[in-house]
Write a structure and sequence with these properties.
The complex is a heterodimer.
Chain A lengths: L5 H8 L1 E3 L7 E4 L2 E4 L5 H10 L9 E4 L8 H4 L8 H17 L3 E2 L9 H7 L8 E4 L13 E4 L2 H10 L1 E4 L3 E8 L8 H12 L7 E6 L1 H4 L3 H9 L8 E3 L4 H7 L8 H11 L12 E6 L6 E3 L7 E3 L11 H10 L14 E4 L7 H11 L9 E4 L4 H9 L2 H8 L2 E2 L20 E4 L14 E4 L2 H10 L6 H4 L1
Parallel strand pairs in A: 3-4, 3-6, 4-5, 6-7, 9-10, 9-12, 10-11, 15-16, 15-18, 16-17, 18-19
Antiparallel strand pairs in A: 1-2, 2-8, 13-14
Helix pairs in contact in A: 2-6, 7-9, 13-15, 13-16
Chain B lengths: L5 E9 L6 H4 L19 H4 L22 E4 L11 H9 L3 E4 L4 H8 L4 E4 L2 H9 L4 E5 L4 E3 L5 E3 L4 H9 L3 H6 L2 H11 L1
Parallel strand pairs in B: 1-2, 2-3, 3-4
Antiparallel strand pairs in B: 1-5, 5-6, 6-7
The chains are: A alpha/beta, B alpha/beta.
The structure holds iron/sulfur cluster.
């Protein structure tokens, strides 16, 4: 028997019709996550062609992107401020009724960012194929699932047939040796990886993150790493399931129960890359050498250690234009840069452990005068847990805003935006021009760095507070 | 979708690398429930000033860019968000093909499904195109060839099935629906 990678094992289990020179493989999709922004046109196609949703039981629908995070608009009966967003949300509600889908709706206790609630509900499981009309679907690969983002046309294909047409991608192993140093997080690790391989370093590949540093990560941390695979150009990133994975899933509502659980775990244990399996490409890193990282430019590959400086690249016009947008000069020190906004949230860093770290830094301290800090839990469950454990009170006592869950300031389409020209240290995943609002200047970092920066009002190494 | 065979047009050139889909169409335009009219929002933050007036410097606002159906872009165009609104906006604006040395995976897949042809060429060809904005070029899908005005021609890769669909104006959904028996058999077997 030939040695196989984790990716190959999951892929092969889902081939309905093998690929040929003329046609791609028909690949079966176990779980389809759906949200309000990338689905309306897909439902319209189904309607116009008289098609049904093939497997409502494999379709998990919620709202997060254009959904407001203001409590009054969710629970207080106040109309949703953005009329177009309100319309989109109503459209999703209607589509779910018309096509017979369960909707985790606006006031549902299980609602949240789609990539946070899938794992939280136990719907995300090892060995599954998972897709969503959203590029950060790569998050679910943390469980050893093959999970990737698709466009709206493909959302329609999956609704109608539960399948996609796919050519088999290549494989890239990212081997991370040793352990992360204290005060250095999974976010710093993935930013360092993207800095190393570039924003197109993973194009055409599925990444498998491996090595002692990866095995030592919690599920929350593995999700942070896999989440940003797409920022390196890879549609999917995976981590082999292990005891950490099983312990996380056990007892979750949609995880197998009883005897079915034991059978599932026995099967999941086989989902590891065999000794001797060959990857198309291998990259190795030393976790111990990684520092807290922060971005300075307009893509996540433009990243440096927090103690570092903006690099100099004479003659690179694109680089110069990016720095001009950011209002930063080559050679400038990143530490101590004044910021106006701090955002802790998004599918990258809004799970309970992220909020825990931020609260640890903020406990007994205040957000610096002139800084707006927004803390947005990734789901309503995370929100309740943070409230029950006193984390929310730490944030509000410090002067931060505490919101209902959603994508919020990760992307400027739900009313939460960073004003023109302002600097925002953000725990989200994209520092693209205008991502957080027209003219907004995003510095991506970990929750610890974001909280430390909020306290000082300047870019701050979190180890000053944590160690 | 109209069948594509040959696209002959002048080029508009945006040489920046890593043009992400948030630039192609910013998120605030995504609260739509249709795919129509998105051309107006194409590159909105680059195309218009803060006062909403067109920025005369921006390449697509220049007179010579009007009517161009081929966009030449820097390496890794379409990275970032999976929003299909990006190819919808480019098509609605009038583009029918995008040429680069590298095109991000999800954007390429979305483009193919909507009849926006992604064309990946070598560095030298790309450098020539960037140095000669407005050049009249021909993209021949049946022979997967790009012809430059000086008579040179270069081949470009297109996945065989996508090419068949584009040339015949058929979508993949019809093909997938015909696999119903195989899908049902798979479901019975896999549970
Ligand atoms: S939090 Fe941001 S990156 Fe994550 S799904 Fe929402 S918009 Fe996308």
């Amino acid at each position: 028997m030939t040695a196989k990678t984790l990716f190959e094992k999951v892929w092969e289990r889902h081939v309905v019709v093998p690929e040929t020179a003329d046609t791609p493989a028909v690949l079966y999709i176990d779980l389809h996550l759906t949200h309000e922004v990338t689905s309306p046109q897909a439902f319209s196609v189904l309607r116009s062609r008289g098609l049904k949703v093939r497997r409502p039981d494999r379709t998990l629908v919620t709202m997060d992107h254009s959904t407001p995070t203001d409590t009054a608009q969710i629970f207080g009966g106040k109309p949703i401020a953005l009329e177009s967003a309100a319309k989109q949300i109503r459209q999703l509600e209607q589509n779910c009724v018309e096509f017979g889908l369960d909707l985790i709706g606006l006031t549902d206790e299980r609602r949240g960012i789609v990539h946070i609630i899938g794992p939280e509900l136990g719907a995300t499981q090892p060995g599954k194929t998972i897709v969503c009309g959203d590029s950060h679907t790569s998050t679910h690969g943390a469980f050893g699932a093959l999970a990737f983002g698709i466009g709206t046309t493909e959302v329609g294909y999956v609704l109608a047939t539960q399948c996609l047409l796919q050519r088999r991608p290549k494989t890239l192993a990212i081997e991370v040796a040793k352990r992360l140093a204290p005060g250095v997080s999974a976010k710093d690790l993935v930013l360092a990886i993207i800095g190393r391989i570039g924003v197109n370093g993973g194009t055409g590949h599925v990444i498998e993150y491996r090595g002692t540093a990866i095995e030592a990560l919690s599920m929350d941390e593995r999700m942070t790493v896999c989440n940003m695979s797409i920022e390196a150009g890879a549609r999917a990133g995976m981590v082999a399931p292990d005891e950490t994975t099983f312990a996380y899933l056990k007892g979750r509502p949609r995880a197998p129960q009883g005897e079915a659980w034991d059978r599932a775990v026995a099967d999941w244990r086989t989902l590891r890359t065999d000794a001797g399996a060959v990857f198309d490409k291998v990259v190795s890193l030393d976790a111990a050498a990684i520092e807290p990282m922060i971005t300075y430019g307009t893509n996540p590959g433009m990243v440096a250690p927090i103690s570092g400086r903006v690099p100099e690249r004479p003659g690179d016009a694109v680089f110069a234009r990016s720095l001009e947008y950011m209002g930063l000069a080559p050679g400038e020190l990143l530490r101590d840069k004044p910021v106006q906004v701090v955002f802790v949230g998004s599918c990258t860093n809004a799970r309970i452990s992220d909020l825990e770290v931020a609260a640890k830094v903020l406990a007994g301290r205040k957000v610096a005068p002139g800084v707006r800090m927004l803390v947005v839990p990734g789901s309503q469950q995370v929100k309740h847990e943070a409230e029950a454990r006193g984390l929310a009170k730490v944030f509000t006592d410090a002067g931060a805003e505490w919101r209902e869950s959603g994508c919020s300031m990760c992307l400027g389409m739900n009313g939460d935006t960073v004003p023109q020209g302002q600097y925002c240290v953000s725990t989200s995943n994209r520092n693209f021009e205008g991502r957080q609002g027209s003219g907004a200047r995003t510095l991506l970092a970990s929750p610890a760095t974001a909280a430390a920066t909020a306290v000082r009002g300047r870019v701050t190494d979190p180890r000053e507070f944590l160690n | 979708m109209d069948p594509i065979t040959v696209i002959r047009s002048r080029t508009a050139v945006m040489p920046s690398s890593n043009i992400d889909t948030d630039q192609i169409i910013p998120a605030r335009f995504l609260t739509t429930t249709t795919r129509d009219g998105l051309g107006a929002a194409l590159f909105a933050d680059w195309r218009y000033g803060a006062d909403g007036r067109p920025n005369p410097e921006f390449v697509l606002n220049r007179p010579e860019a009007q009517g161009c159906e081929i966009l030449v872009a820097g390496r890794n165009i379409g990275c970032g968000s999976s929003r299909e609104h990006a190819p919808w906006a480019l098509l609605d604006f009038g583009f029918r093909a995008v040429i680069s040395t590298e095109i991000a995976d999800i954007f390429r897949s979305n483009s193919l499904k909507n009849g926006l042809l992604p064309v990946v060429v070598d560095e030298a060809t790309h450098a020539w195109l960037v140095a000669n904005p407005g050049a009249e070029v021909e993209i021949d899908l049946p022979s997967t060839t790009l012809r430059l005005p000086d008579g040179r021609s270069v081949r470009f890769p297109v996945e065989a099935f996508a090419r068949y669909c584009l040339m015949n104006g058929v979508d993949e959904l019809g093909y997938l629906l015909k696999q119903a028996d195989a899908i049902a058999a798979y479901e019975r077997h896999a549970g």
